[in-house]
């Protein structure tokens, strides 16, 4: 293939500018114009929608997805429209953008949507604690402590999932990239490299 470096007029002491440092260059950088070619059309986005349930379940588990859905329904039932609209629009915008955007490390771009879903899970947990407190009202210590225990259980669940999954997520034995870079960096450069 053709490389612009083959025809670059290079002088000793010349500075290589890799970025356009003008105001227009800054705007282009902030807007991510370098990745504009990774934005795809509707067909690509529709093809990606089939993976959404697996992505959500992979991060939140089926139980977490169900709790998030219940949390959104609780917000609707309580007519918390501004909160539901804000979180729902944010969730939809993040998911929608990611469906059109296709880069290799796209998984990290879903994190804001997962965090919004976790907010809906928190709404469900708060609702469960409220219902338990109302049901047990007037029953002494049990009425005071059991709702707090429910909240603590739901705080402990993600920690347990983390502990269970941590071993399978270990990358300590994944040394392929390091070995390739090491071989590349220790090799003598070709005589015509520069």
How would you name the oligomeric state of the polypeptide chains in this document?
Answer: single chain
Helices and strands, in order, run as HHHHHHH
Helix content: 55-70%
Strand count, sense and closure of the main sheet? none
Please give the number of β-strands: 0
Instruction: Tell me, rounded to a whole number, the average pLDDT.
Output: 84
Strand content: under 5%
Large-scale geometry: elongated
Poorly predicted runs of 5 or more residues: none
The radius of gyration is 25 Å
What count of helical segments does DSSP give? Answer: 7
Q: What's the N-to-C terminus distance?
A: 18 Å
- The computed structural class is mainly alpha
Provide structural commentary:
The protein has helices at residues 23-30, 42-49, 52-77, 81-100, 111-135, 141-166, 176-186. The protein has a domain at 37-163. It contains seven helices and no strands. With 194 residues, the chain is mainly alpha-helical.
Describe the SSE topology.
Elements: H1 23-30, H2 42-49, H3 52-77, H4 81-100, H5 111-135, H6 141-166, H7 176-186
Helix pairs in contact: 2-4, 3-5, 4-5, 5-6
Brief write-up:
The chain is mostly helical and 194 residues long. Helices cover 64% and strands 0% of the residues.
Features:
mainly alpha; single chain; 7 helices
């Amino acid at each position: 293939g053709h490389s612009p470096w083959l025809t670059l007029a290079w002088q000793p002491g010349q500075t290589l500018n890799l970025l356009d440092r003008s105001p227009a260059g800054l705007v282009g950088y902030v807007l991510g114009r370098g990745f504009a070619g990774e934005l795809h059309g509707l067909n690509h986005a529709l093809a990606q929608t089939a993976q959404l349930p697996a992505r959500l379940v992979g991060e939140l588990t089926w139980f977490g997805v169900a709790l998030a859905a219940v949390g959104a329904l609780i917000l609707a039932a309580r007519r918390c429209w501004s909160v539901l609209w804000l979180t729902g629009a944010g969730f939809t915008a993040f998911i929608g953008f990611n469906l059109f955007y296709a880069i290799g490390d796209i998984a990290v771009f879903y994190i804001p949507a997962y965090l919004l879903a976790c907010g809906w899970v928190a709404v469900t947990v708060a609702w469960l604690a409220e219902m338990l407190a109302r049901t047990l009202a007037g029953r002494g210590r049990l009425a005071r402590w059991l709702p707090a225990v429910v909240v603590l259980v739901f705080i402990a669940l993600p920690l347990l999932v983390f502990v269970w999954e941590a071993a399978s997520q270990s990358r300590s034995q994944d040394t392929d990239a390091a070995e390739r870079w090491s071989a590349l960096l220790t090799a003598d450069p070709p005589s015509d490299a520069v």
